[in-house]
Every structure is written in structure tokens, then in C-alpha cells.
Amino acid sequence: MKPTFVVLTDLSPGAARAAHVAALLAAAAGAELVLLHLEAEPVVEPEFGLLPLPAHYLDQQQRDTVAALAALARSLAAPVRVQPNRGGLHDTLQLVIRRQMPLLLVLGLAPEHALIDQLLYSYALPVLRATHLPLLLVPAAGLPEEAQLPRQVALAIDGERFQLSAASCRVAALVESWQAEYTVVHVAPPDGPTLNMHDVVTTAHDGGLLSARVISSSTYQLRHAVCGAGLVQAVVDTQADLLVLVARPRSFLDELFHRSATAEVLPRSPVPVLLLPAAAVAAPTAARQAADGLLY
């Protein structure tokens, strides 16, 4: 069975750009795309409730959507299937995930909180929070017209222990197949201590973000008052064309558009951001002391 990438699209230019990036990655992985159309919810007015739209308008809108999705599918450099969105985004996405078991979810980012952001937060997040699928977020602008496989990958590491989920390990292996150059990045506070970057790289290896096959990687540490802004600066400084973030269980997705470092990165990143969920890791316990050959 071919691996599958699910692309959420509202047929905007930014979403189309995300679909083209996903197709490039899917072609390299021998995967196929599933296009899932995001539709606006019915208009609700406080005084009148649900406002019905004329049937002829809905029919024409449906025909236009089908034609636009078909045109987008034909323009992509990978096998594509179009998934009808029946029964609402939450139910449809849940059905697609259950049946297709996708390797990756792909979404275009708008410069402002547009429909695609609203639908993601309101309807997709409950499903994603439960499944912890890796998520690729593609900016609407800043990418070259002819997208290429990433050659410079920035791995953002905060120094804390983590362990990638099984799904994230599969995507991390896919990234390695591109034979890109890796830079392990850390943002330190302006007045706080810096980290030993050798230890940071070891954390990346232990957590599954860098496998034993990656023999060498460079490191880059900078100081910045705002972690997210520092990561964006690190992307520019290292000339990275992909930023990889580890999404820990305590903050995965429900803080994407709020107060996490991830939320600070997403509106500003000039390159795609790959979110790899981590599994829960038990806090290290103090080593027990041995006395008379017994552990206490």
C-alpha cells in the first residue's frame, strides 16, 4: 500500500502552493496525495439563525469546486485522489485518517487567520489531537516558483528529552532520504545560559530526530528574547529551506495559534514548517542507591 499525504485545501493560491510542495515530496517518497476540500460552514445570523442559500447557487458552487479540484489535481506531480467532503470536515477527516492511515497531513498557511485557519482549529484539531499525525505547514509566500526537495534542514531543539512517535519516526526517515544537510538549532534567552550543543545533538539522536545514519550535522545557537522569532532568524542565518519542530504532547496543536513558540514561528516562517509529534516521555527518576546488594 502506497503511503498517503492528505492535503487540506480551500483552493486559495496559498493552499495550491502547499499542494504543489506536497506533490513534490510525495513523488520523492512514492506516495499519493488525497485532496480534501475545506468548505465554509453555513452562514449564521444571530437574529435569523441559519441563512439558507438558493439551491441553484449551491449547485453551481459545487460544480465550480469539482472543476477547480480536478484542475489542481491535474497540475500536481504525483498521483492524486480527490476526497469529497461530506458530513463536515471533522467527520470527513476522521474517516480519511481511519481508512487511509496517512503518513502526513499538509496545510497551507495564510498571512492572516483566514477560513483555512478557522476550519482547522474548529474542526480538524480534535481529530489531530487524538491521532498526533505529523503536520507540514507551507507558507503562502517566500518559496521559489519551482519548488525543490529541501537541501538545508534546520532542526529546532530545546534541549529537553523527547521521543518521536512512531508516525513521526516514519516521516523523519523520509526527510533523511532527501540527503539534506542538517543544522541543529537552539535559541537561548538573552541573559540565560547557553547549552552544550554536543549534548543537544545527542538529544536529537536519542529522540529519533537524527538516526544513526546521519553521521554529521552542524549546530547553530543564538540568543533571542522571543524563541519563535529566534527560530525564524536561525532559518534565515542557516539558509534552511525546511524547519522541523518537535511538538510535545503537552502543547501539540491546541496551542498552534496561541502562545507557544510554534505559534510565534508559523506566521513568520519563510519556509515550510514540519511538526513532528513526540510521544509522552516519563520524567527521569533519581537513581536508587544500593546497600548490601539491594536497591532501595
TrEMBL record:
Boundaries of every UspA domain copy: 5-139, 152-276
Domain of life per record: Bacteria
Protein name (Swiss-Prot/TrEMBL): UspA domain-containing protein
Keyword ATP-binding: no
Pfam families: Usp
Lineage: Bacteria, Pseudomonadati, Bacteroidota, Cytophagia, Cytophagales
Signal peptide: 1-18
Keyword terms: Signal
Record-stated family: Belongs to the universal stress protein A family.
Xref: Gene3D superfamilies: HUPs
